[in-house]
């Protein structure tokens, strides 16, 4: 199976319309980006308390090092 990273957002942080719109824009942009140097978006789902963005997992040390720089 594949391993993924998850960005977890508490719904209590999405109470304002502006904040929700920013999240929707982030998801839409992430869905459209396809580049080897950009973490790939896989899915999004929610439960009562959280919204989860499922993203590509960067496991290689080279990837982490380049992000830190």
From TrEMBL:
Residue span(s) of domain Protein kinase: 1-69
Coiled coil (UniProt feature): none
Gene Ontology BP term (one): mitotic spindle organization
Keywords: ATP-binding, Kinase, Nucleotide-binding, Serine/threonine-protein kinase, Transferase
GO terms for MF: ATP binding; protein serine/threonine kinase activity
Pfam families named in the record: Pkinase (PF00069)
Keyword Nucleotide-binding annotated: yes
InterPro entries: Kinase-like_dom_sf, Prot_kinase_dom
GO cellular component, one term: spindle pole body
Name used for this protein in its record: Cell cycle serine/threonine-protein kinase cdc5/MSD2
Organism: Modicella reniformis
């Amino acid at each position: 199976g594949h391993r993924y990273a998850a960005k977890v957002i508490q719904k209590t942080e999405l109470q304002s319309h502006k904040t929700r719109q920013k999240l929707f824009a982030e998801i839409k942009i992430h869905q459209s980006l396809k580049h080897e140097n950009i973490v790939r978006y896989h899915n999004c789902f929610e439960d009562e308390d959280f919204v989860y963005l499922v993203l590509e997992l960067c496991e290689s040390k080279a990837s982490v090092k380049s992000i830190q720089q």
